[in-house]
Design a protein that fits this description.
single chain; mainly alpha; 2 domains; rod-shaped
Length: about 180
């Protein structure tokens, strides 16, 4: 019976050593996995923070674009009005070129050129009106995009969490601050 007890004792000691070895190995692997997860969480946090900054810059750019488009729309409207005025003036000059002096119309050949220029100025005014309308539509689109980008930036900022290293603690990892970088 002594050999049976001795064998049983040896098996129990071996079983205990195997158990301790497995616990140590599992703890080592678990900590390695935890360090990797923490590193990934930190990288994801940095990526989200960068994305939030980029979308905020894009939102600011769309606000600036709106101001530029507004100025371009105003300029286009002003240029269209000027082209319409020029067309009316050129038409008046074309009519004046048809004047008759003792039955002769010496300026009549110039009248056709003034009429052509008046028509071109009127077409330019229509084109500038269309450009102003397009700029107005673009401003409407841009005015919707800017706030959406700002909202996206805010949401990305919320996802990335505070920059003081507490994001992992919110996930239930209280030991994060003691981990090496």
């Amino acid at each position: 019976m002594r050999t049976g007890r001795r064998a049983m004792g040896s098996l129990l000691v071996a079983y205990g050593i195997l158990g301790i070895t497995l616990v140590v190995l599992t703890a080592w692997i678990g900590l390695d996995v935890a360090f990797r997860v923490e590193r990934l969480a930190t990288d994801a946090d940095a990526t989200l923070t960068a994305a939030a900054r980029a979308t905020e810059a894009a939102a600011d750019s769309f606000t600036n674009i709106d101001a530029s488009l507004s100025e371009a729309e105003t300029s286009s409207n002003t240029a269209a009005a000027l082209a319409r005025d020029a067309s009316a003036t050129l038409d008046a000059l074309a009519l004046a070129m048809r004047l008759s002096v003792f039955g002769a119309q010496p300026l009549l050949p110039l009248a056709a050129e003034f009429t052509t220029s008046a028509d071109q100025a009127a077409e330019l005014a229509e084109t500038l009106d269309a450009v102003a309308g397009s700029l107005s539509d673009t401003r409407t689109d841009v005015s919707r995009i800017g706030p959406e980008l700002q909202l996206l930036s805010d949401e990305l900022g919320d996802l990335s969490g505070p920059s003081d290293g507490t994001s992992a603690r919110r996930c239930g990892w209280p030991w994060r601050s003691s981990w090496p970088g």
